């Protein structure tokens, strides 16, 4: 028995000093909650049975002071978010996401370029997290524009992790989680300015990254329909399978990779209603605001227009068409297919953009059941 105890103790030491723990390796079933959806999907209404982590989206950084900007209304929303989730299920971790697709990338670059401005930003984020009872912080900088900005990002991650470790030690509280939302691939191979994320800094300083595995196709190309979150693309590397595998090849551990799943679709107007497959000729965006429908709106559109639904095995995606309207999206079947892929890749879990867009928790529930206890 003594030898077994020594083996177990040794394993515990290895886990501790490798930066991982048995608890931290639990599966992640996450989702972002857009604060502007509060009127129809307040935090208290979220069915927390299907999630382990929920993100408040978004807080902005003041481009002049580099501190987080919180209006009186934002303060109320943040308080309602943490209180509402805690009341539903205190085991669910809450994080705040900073930035977002509409944020000022140039301001992030300026903040990250010097140690004093990074410290101001970091201190502000920790202060906000503790004030509102959050469990963690998430950076959604879309996107560092060149190799220099990626190098600044690595420094930011290093100093941020050091700061939250020190704060946890001095305050005797659990350490704040630190995550980031990132491009679907570690390398921006489609860009005129090729650059790559600092994989080593991610490996050592972040708890995990949320790879945004969606928006591969959309309103910026109205010439043909597309699966905007294709798991596979036989014609290109613009796919979730390529992105996830590339992240692993870059040196980011599978235990720090979380796969993004969309709860919305992108729409096109077909050139010919009789030609309606993926890649069919199109002449513009279809229904929805700028060619986007939430999953709830997709369900409603299908019902109102007697749409025809097709599951595409090649891309592991779903689309529907009605007249000259075409919508590419993920339903429960394609979502479960992607989750099975994620399980085979032994990555940490998945996240949804965005929790407010589901229809009666249909996809959230089936995703959670498909992942099970992996």
**Mean pLDDT, as a whole number?**
94
Instruction: Give the overall silhouette.
Output: globular
- Major sheet details: 8 strands, parallel, barrel
Radius of gyration: 21 Å
What attributes characterize this protein structure?
374 residues, alpha/beta, TIM Barrel, 8-stranded parallel beta barrel, 15 strands, 36% helix, 21% strand, globular, Glyco_hydro18_cat
Description:
Keywords: Glycoprotein, Glycosidase, Hydrolase, Signal. Residues 1-18 form the signal peptide. The structure is a single chain. With 374 residues, the protein is α/β, with parallel strands linked by helices. The chain has one domain (26-262, 330-371): Glycosidases (TIM Barrel), CATH 3.20.20.80. The chain has 10 helices and 15 strands. It has helices spanning 2-17, 72-88, 105-112, 115-131, 147-171, 199-205, 240-249, 295-305, 332-344, 362-371, and strands at 28-34, 53-61, 68-69, 93-99, 136-140, 177-182, 208-211, 257-262, 264-270, 282-284, 292-294, 308-312, 317-322, 325-329, 349-353. Strands 1-2-4-5-6-7-8-15 form an 8-stranded parallel β-barrel, surrounded by 8 helices. A hairpin with a 4-residue loop joins strand 12 (308-312) and strand 13. The longest helix has 25 residues, at 147-171. It is globular and about 65 Å long. The model is unreliable at 1-24 (pLDDT under 50).
Quick summary:
Helices cover 36% and strands 21% of the residues. It has helices at residues 2-17, 72-88, 105-112, 115-131, 147-171, 199-205, 240-249, 295-305, 332-344, 362-371; strands at residues 28-34, 53-61, 68-69, 93-99, 136-140, 177-182, 208-211, 257-262, 264-270, 282-284, 292-294, 308-312, 317-322, 325-329, 349-353. With 374 residues, it is α/β, with parallel strands linked by helices.
């Amino acid at each position: 028995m003594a030898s077994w105890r020594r083996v177990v103790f040794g394993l515990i030491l290895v886990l501790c000093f490798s930066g991982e723990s048995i608890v931290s390796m639990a599966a992640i079933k996450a989702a972002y909650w857009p604060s502007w959806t509060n009127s129809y999907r307040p935090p208290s209404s979220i069915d927390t049975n299907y999630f382990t982590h929920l993100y408040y989206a978004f807080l902005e950084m003041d481009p002049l002071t580099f501190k987080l900007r919180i209006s009186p209304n934002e303060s109320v929303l943040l308080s309602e978010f943490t209180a509402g989730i805690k009341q539903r299920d205190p085991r669910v971790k809450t994080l705040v996401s900073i930035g977002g697709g509409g944020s000022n990338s140039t301001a992030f670059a300026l903040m990250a370029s010097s140690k004093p401005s990074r410290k101001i930003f970091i201190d502000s984020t920790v202060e906000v997290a503790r004030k509102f009872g959050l469990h963690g912080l998430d950076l959604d900088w879309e996107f560092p524009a060149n190799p220099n900005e990626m190098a600044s990002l690595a420094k930011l991650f290093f100093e941020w992790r050091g700061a939250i470790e020190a704060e946890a030690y001095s305050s005797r509280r659990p350490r704040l989680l630190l995550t980031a939302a990132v491009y679907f691939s570690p390398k921006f191979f489609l860009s005129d300015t090729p650059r790559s994320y600092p994989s080593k800094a991610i490996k050592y300083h972040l708890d995990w990254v949320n790879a945004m595995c969606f928006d591969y196709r959309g309103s910026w190309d109205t010439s043909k329909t597309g699966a905007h979150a294709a798991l596979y693309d036989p014609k290109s590397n613009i796919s979730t399978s390529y992105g996830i595998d590339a992240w692993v090849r870059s040196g980011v551990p599978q235990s720090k990779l979380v796969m993004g799943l969309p709860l919305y679709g992108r729409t096109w107007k077909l050139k010919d209603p009789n030609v309606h497959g993926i890649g069919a000729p199109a002449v513009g965006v279809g229904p929805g605001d700028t060619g986007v429908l939430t999953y709830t709106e997709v369900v409603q559109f299908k019902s109102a227009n007697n749409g025809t639904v097709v599951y595409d095995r090649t891309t592991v995606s779903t689309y529907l068409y009605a007249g000259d309207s075409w919508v590419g999206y993920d339903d429960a079947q394609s979502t479960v297919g992607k989750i099975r892929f994620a399980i085979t890749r032994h990555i940490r879990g998945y996240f949804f953009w965005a929790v407010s867009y589901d229809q009666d928790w249909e996809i959230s529930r089936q995703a959670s059941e498909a992942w099970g206890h992996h």
